[in-house]
Specification:
It contains two helices and no strands. It is mainly alpha-helical and 59 residues long. It has one domain. The longest helix is centred in the first third of the chain and has 24 residues. The protein starts with 6 loop residues before the first helix and ends in a 6-residue tail after the last helix. 0% of the residues are buried.
C-alpha cells in the first residue's frame, strides 16, 4: 500500500526547496564577505576625508 501524501505539504516543501536554491545562487552571485564590506567602507571613508580636506572654504 502506498503512503498517503498531503499535497499541500508536498507543494510547500517543493516551494521552500526552490526558494532555498535561489537564495544559495544569490549568495554566491551577490554575496560579499564581511572583510570585503569593511575594506570598502574604510576606502570610502578615507576618500570622503580627503575630498573634505581639500575643499575650499567659502567666506
Amino acid at each position: 500500500m502506498a503512503d498517503i501524501v498531503n499535497l499541500n505539504r508536498a507543494r510547500k516543501q517543493k516551494s521552500r526547496a526552490e526558494r532555498e536554491q535561489q537564495a544559495a545562487e544569490n549568495r554566491v552571485r551577490f554575496g560579499r564577505s564581511k572583510a570585503e564590506k569593511a575594506r570598502d567602507a574604510a576606502e570610502k571613508s578615507l576618500a570622503e576625508k580627503l575630498v573634505e580636506a581639500h575643499r575650499r572654504d567659502s567666506d
